[in-house]
């Protein structure tokens, strides 16, 4: 089996077809906030690379899975996600705002009586290489060993943008070559077709495209049988009846959160600002779904109860 780390570099011919070869070669790169940023990082972080441990490159996957349980977070179902603490590096990076596909994109693309499949990319970030100007700062020392990421990791501020840029030409190529409507939110991909027969014939071709690009599909999380109901970004999308419904999990979490805040208010307790921000964000999840104007032609009904 091909190693995950930065394996996209071994499939440049396939990436060349959709015009993303240079993006893959570049990998995740960063724009420093100032020249002082680089100087500060060199003085405070790069010193480790001057030690004898610089040449001692331990296999990161083995080290983390066996010795670094305290620096990874639970992903669910006894699975773990490795997240690099890049807080110091992130302070010195220029962040670019960008727009990803979301539930509004799906509402605009969907047509009455559509059928859909959903793909989930496995270890998506870890397939992307890291550029030289960043690689030296994505390392850590543990038990007299120094490890350095050569594949994109969770935690770096620019990772979502880089992944979005890589996926955009892939989705455009898939849409054009197969005549199918599709969208992506990070590693969650949705494909739509009004004909279930056509969609069933397109599924093997879609999987072939992503296999050629070294994009491994998580069969456990993906829906490879056409359905008219799918879950996307916390919403249950009913394509047959043109409805958006809250998932049971999201509904239960929202009711629990509101109940907790009601009790907090009744007791006149002080709370942290970040907790208030979290509440606003969760409630905005509902409010941002309602739009005026031409979106009404889609005829979507929002059901939150």
From TrEMBL:
Pfam families: RVT_1. Keywords: Nucleotidyltransferase, RNA-directed DNA polymerase, Transferase. InterPro entries: DNA/RNA_pol_sf, Hepadnavirus_pol/RT, Rev_trsase/Diguanyl_cyclase, RT_dom. GO terms for molecular function: RNA-directed DNA polymerase activity. Residues 53-237 form the Reverse transcriptase domain. This is Putative reverse transcriptase. It comes from Streblomastix strix. The lineage of its organism: Eukaryota, Metamonada, Preaxostyla, Oxymonadida, Streblomastigidae.
